[in-house]
Amino acid sequence: MSTIKRLELVAAIEQCRAVKSAAAELPGKSLTATLNKLLTGEFIAIHEYTGHYAVTKNLGYNKLAAGIKERLDDELKHANMLTYRIVFLGGDPTVDGKIDAEVGKTVPKQFELDKAKELGAVQDYNDAIQQAIKAGDAVTRAMLESIVKDEDDHVDEISTAQDQITQMGIGQYLVTQV
Questions:
Q1: H or E element at residue 120
Q2: Angle, to 10 degrees, between the axis of helix 107-135 and the axis of helix 32-58?
Q3: DSSP class per residue in 1-20
Q4: How far apart are CA 170 and CA 99, in angstroms?
Q5: Given this model, what pLDDT does residue 97 score?
Q6: pLDDT < 70 positions in the chain
Q7: How many CA atoms lie within 13 A of 10 on its CB side?
Q8: pLDDT in tens, 82-109
Q9: Which phi-psi region, left, alpha or beta, contains residue 107 (left: φ > 0; alpha: ψ -120 to 50)?
Q10: Do residues 82 and 118 touch, judged by C-beta distance below 8 A?
């Protein structure tokens, strides 16, 4: 290995150590417990959406299943974002409790369950944003704001579908989802 390459490698290692050391001193370190709570919620949503995807796909509602799959992918992305931020802040990503979610056997029940979870997530993320602001952690705040926007979009999508069911009836709605 050339001297220049060795010096570049040493400099890169020192930079990584400096970033890790600075992360351990961040005022947002107290946020890790909150972020872990949010991570648990994301895993519950992943579990629920996976079940709802399987049910709707099995019933042949391919358009509806595709929408559920998009929300599922968002929840997976959120879990990854939270995990990386927890680690960066010097914490250990953990999921508390049993990952238990109710899987709706009918489409209206699925929407009811999903909307309740999403509304709860919006509230939890808004609370966490306030905690990040108080901690002076602008990066965590920005991450949480991007996630809460996705969760709010999910509420809007579900509410729109519920409105369509109310207006056209469940049978007609499901015909549009094949």
A1: helix 107-135
A2: 160
A3: --HHHHHHHHHHHHHHHHHH
A4: 30
A5: 76
A6: 1-29
A7: 7
A8: 999 999 999 999 998 777 789 999 999 9
A9: alpha
A10: no
Give helix 138-168 / helix 107-135 axis angle, nearest 10°: 160
Residue with tokens 């010096």, as numbered in its chain:
7
Q: Which long-range contacts (CB under 8 A, 24 or more apart) does 163-167 make?
A: 165/107, 165/108, 165/111
d(CA 163, CA 173): 10
For the chain, the straight-line distance linking the first and the last C-alpha, in angstroms and rounded, comes to 61
The rounded distance, in Å, linking the Cα atoms of 34 and 49 is 23
Which pLDDT belongs to residue 13? 65
Instruction: Write the DSSP string, 55-104.
Output: HHHHTT-HHHHHHHHHHHHHHHHHHHHHHHHHHHTT------S----PPP
- Structural domains of the chain sorted by starting position, each given as residue range(s) with its CATH number in brackets: 27-175 (1.20.1260.10)
pTM of the shown model: 0.82
Degrees to nearest 5, angle at CA 88 with 85 and 91: 90
CA distance 77 to 115: 19
CB 136 within 8 A of CB 27: yes
Please report the pLDDT score of residue 42 as a whole number.
97
**Residue 102 contacts residue 47 (beta carbons within 8 Å):** no
